[in-house]
Amino acid sequence: MSLSRRVLVVAFSAFCLWGFTVSAKPKVAMAVYHFNLQYVAGDQRIERRIVRESIIPLLDFYEAHPNYKGDFEIQGWALEVIQEEFPEVIERLRALINSGQLELVVAHYSDQLFIGYPALDLQRSVELSDRVLKKLNLKRSRVFFAQELQWSPALASALQGKYDVVVTSGDPYGYYRSAAMPLEWFEYAGKRMLVLLGGGEKSLKCCQWAWAFFDDGEVFSTRDYMSDFYRVPEWEKQHVDRFKKLEREGYRFVTVSEFVALLKERGYKIPTMPYVPEGTWNMSAGGPYNWLGKQGGGAETDGPTRARNFRARNWVLTAETLVKKVIDRLQGPRAFIEKVLELAWQHLLLGEVSDSSGWSPFPIEVRYTDEECTVAEQGARVLIEQVLSTTGLDTGCVFVDLKSGEVTPARASTSHPQAECAASPTPVKVRAASYEIQVEKFSKDLYRLRITARRPRDGQVEFVFPLTGRVHYYSPPLGEDSLVSVPTDLKHDPILSLANGLFTLGNGWNLIKDNTVEHLAGTWRYKSNELVFREGLREDVPTAEMVFYLYRGTPQEALARANRLNVWPRIRVCVSNGQILLHRLGLEEIGQQ
After folding, report:
1. What residues contact 55, with CB distance under 8 A and at least 6 apart?
2. How many Å apart are CA 487 and CA 493, to the nearest integer?
3. What is the side-by-side order of every strand in the sheet holding 579-584?
4. Are 26 and 252 in contact (CB under 8 A)?
5. Quick one: pLDDT at residue 153?
6. For position 413, what pLDDT does the model report?
7. Is residue 446 within 8 Å of 549, Cβ to Cβ?
8. I want to staple 430 with a disulfide (CB 3.0 to 4.6 A). Which of 7, 163, 435, 462 is the partner?
9. Cβ distance 445 to 507 under 8 Å?
10. How far is the C-alpha of 253 from the C-alpha of 270, rounded, in Å?
11. Which of 453, 450, 462 lies closest to 422, judged by CA?
């Protein structure tokens, strides 16, 4: 063979080999670890054990295998705790993040049930976490991954500018729709964001991908409750072996951000997902209802526990509004006042932790929410007292508008709106051993229903509102500024957290749930066309009580009133016998100012 021919063959072979290499479908694997120091909320022994038995072994694992990558998700509050008690862990974590081997995911300050509350709460949670990260010199990614794999379409608007991709399970999508692609766009209120669905298709035209790990970080090395959060070597080995197996099969390990970039670079066409209501992992077990109504055992009291958060929230927002109004006139260092306000927010968000309701919370976890809310209220009370004394209003009353920030004088006493006893303008059914409905009519367009239901033998209470027609509106959690028509083509009945309390009933009537009394999820039962609020009561809990407003008007008018009741209420603050009294105005009182 001539030299020129030989060169030609070698060049052709190299070209073929090169062409095969660049066109071969890559194989990549990810690992996402969700850590939760509030796993047993309030139990400091478990907090420390998680660090020693779960986080440190994983850091050892990654330091020993520099070719492995992963995403560590942990709440901002946990990073503060670790810095105080295990500063060397923060140093090791920082080194792995800076090297690009680990990607830090911080979704919220507390592992809160954010689908139960307005957008502001999650946004403040992110702000607090970012302050912690700045102080610790830790860089977080723009990946969002939340406790209990919570999902809301309104994350697209609530997190705009802060995050680029939401990682969640494929459970809500598959429960309501069908199988999904791994990466899709989702939209809400004119904003859109990427979602990486953990259960999405693995074999794509552009690549083959897999999970090396996708679970609670605690269960990589421990068996959580089954091993009392102590390390179990033979259990840990199974997860380590998974990495080794993928490595042998030719998988390269990447972070979530790198995976998203890879898909885009290799021409993956990103579809837009249809509307999927709020949800969590394990939707077949109830989804949001698990935390907002279902009695799973233990010391659980979902409705009152979550209502406690809303009442404490009103205290903190009132203090914040008053402080902003007069901070330049307050006595004492400005930094101290701002720190007290920050602490009030921190404790409020800790009180919103998911584990105080849902599944089977221990008594310490239910008490945790009440105790954290009490501390938040105490901080708010200190600030309110200082504002009122500084401004000379400590002998009178003021109205505080949490939406506009306006503070106006109020009379020492106010007359109650005139109401008459009446029948409900829309049907109501109650499942209980017995029940009482008090209906107050304030006008032809506004009624208030107070329903007390006594525990039936099986403990399952239901408050049922028949619906008219098939077009109904609500606001998904974190999206209370807009309305959505609830889809009617879902595979299962939609389970809605109703964080601002609104659901339209039809025929011009709208239901607004008072979340400061009991905060429960509502289920639209397609077959019977009813909106149902369910609550499981323990044997030692004799009654459930809920308050609803019935308002006749357009959905947009009802939205404004729902937000006035539950999101941005008006508050009447008075001093009586040296005590601060706070009253959230009901819808019937708003026009009485």
Report:
1. 35, 82, 89, 217
2. 10
3. 407-410, 397-401, 570-576, 579-584
4. yes
5. 98
6. 62
7. yes
8. 435
9. no
10. 22
11. 450
Helix (H, G, I), strand (E, B) or coil at 529: coil
Separation in Å, CA 149 to CA 160, 432, 540: 19, 33, 32
Residue range 23-273 forms a domain whose CATH class is: alpha beta
Q: Provide the Cα torsion 50, 55, 60, 61; round to 10°.
A: 110
Would you say 215 and 232 are in contact if contact means Cβ atoms under 8 Å apart?
A: no
Residue with tokens 């105005």: 585
pLDDT of the residue at 8: 39
Tally of CA atoms within 13 A in the half-sphere of 196 that contains its CB:
27
Token readout for 507 is 């025929």
Return the axis-axis angle of helices 334-351 and 119-136, rounded to nearest 10°. 120
pLDDT of residue 126: 98
Chunked mean pLDDT (size 10), the chain, 593 residues? 43 38 80 97 97 98 98 98 98 98 98 98 98 98 96 98 96 92 96 93 95 98 97 98 98 98 96 97 95 90 97 98 86 86 98 94 96 98 90 82 93 74 96 98 98 97 97 98 98 98 98 98 98 96 97 98 98 90 95 58
DSSP 159: T
- Determine the distance from the C-alpha atom of residue 439 to the mean position of all C-alpha atoms in its chain, rounded to a whole number: 33
pLDDT at 396: 79
Q: Where in the chain is the domain with CATH 2.70.98.30?
A: 420-570
Q: What fold characterizes domain 420-570?
A: Beta-galactosidase; Chain A, domain 5 (2.70.98)
Instruction: Give which of 419, 420, 532 is closest to 465, Cα–Cα.
Output: 532
Distance CA 352, CA 373 (A): 9
In contact, 30 and 209? CB cutoff 8 Å: yes
Q: Are 546 and 463 in contact, with CB atoms under 8 Å apart?
A: yes
What is residue 592's predicted lDDT score, i.e. its pLDDT? 53
CA-closest candidate to residue 470, choices 505, 431, 435: 505
Report DSSP state, residue 182.
S
Length of the chain: 593
Q: Which two tokens stand for residue 340?
A: 């007290």
Residues of the chain with CATH 3.20.110.20: 23-273
Amino acid at 351: G
- DSSP label at residue 251: P
Give CA–CA dist 281/315, Å, rounded.
32
Beta strands in 64-157 (DSSP E): 70-73, 102-105, 143-145
Taking the C-alpha atoms of residue 465 and residue 396, their distance in angstroms, rounded to an integer, is 42
Distance CA 422, CA 188 (A): 40
Closest CA to 193 of 202, 183, 201: 183
Q: Where are the beta strands (DSSP E) in 507-542?
A: 509-513, 522-525, 530-536
Residue 515 burial (CB < 10 Å; 0-12/13-18/19+)? buried
Contact by Cβ (8 Å): 532, 554:
no
What is the end-to-end Cα distance of the chain in Å, rounded? Answer: 101
- Answer for the pair 368, 112: CB distance below 8 angstroms, yes or no: no
Residues 513, 501: contact at Cβ < 8 Å? yes
Residues with Cβ within 8 Å of 188's Cβ and at least 6 positions away in sequence, in order, are 153, 154, 155, 156, 157, 476, 479, 482, 484
Coil vs helix vs strand at 37: coil
CB burial class (10 A; 0-12, 13-18, 19+) of residue 363? exposed
Count the neighbouring beta carbons within 10 Å of the beta carbon of residue 481.
16
